[in-house]
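Class prep. Sample record?

___
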Amino acid sequence: MSILVNKDTKVIVQGFTGKEGSFHAEQCIAYGTNIVGGVTPNKGGQEHLGKPVFNTVKDAVAQTGATVSMIFVPPAFVADAVMEAADAGIELSVIITEGAPVRDMQAAKAYAVKHGMMTIGPNCPGIITAEECKIGIMPGMIFKKGNVGLISKSGTLTYEGANQVVKEGYGITTAVGIGGDPIIGLSYKQLLPMFEADPETEAIVMIGEIGGDLEIQAAAYIKENITKPVVAFIAGQTAPAGKRMGHAGAIISGSAGTAAEKMAALEAAGVKVVVSPADIGKAVAEVLSK
């Protein structure tokens, strides 16, 4: 099994005919993702990458039955794209676009939640169920089917963690890159119970970073609710306080949001915390061999 998406998931692409949308939609189709069409205003009725183009998400959903959208529109239009998807009945939007305004995302996230639509991202690599469905920009060849779920704020470390797991002889059920912006969709705390309920997922890898408190919330949730072994790595262990590091959400304020605080909370929750990202795969092998 998997969480959220599989080979049968019908996906549309918002920003389908743009440069980024075209390139990555083509890669997703080659991976096997069931992309049933795309949306570009004023280009409805055309065909692109062998799939129909629609003027609106509502038209696309009505004619294809799509339940998931992948968003590649420019930053200024992300909020409108998210809200249009929610209005059209999309169940999950995967927002790849980087640089979406924080205030826009506050409004868009609230709108999506109100309409019952889940979101992943923005500024994320997307979601992949190994050897079934890739919605995003991940290098698909790294992700081999297996029994480890993966949640990460970092795109690059998503690939690195998955690669190490595969090299240890295991594989991935589903990997979710949640993004590192201050306002994001699904969090660790919301994804962890999905992996807990997935019978094929036997262990979970959680890759976090400095800033915010999502990892602290996850630690509290794991302690009370997760029975499967969890391996965690927190990036930014040597970052100076007050200096923004890479992702917009990765900034330490006072003593809150430090790597040390998060690693301690996770260890107290029974998580196997590794100091170096190079040890993720070995730690997974260790917890699964017990």
Residues 59 and 273 are 47 Å apart (CA to CA). DSSP finds nine helices and 14 strands in the chain.
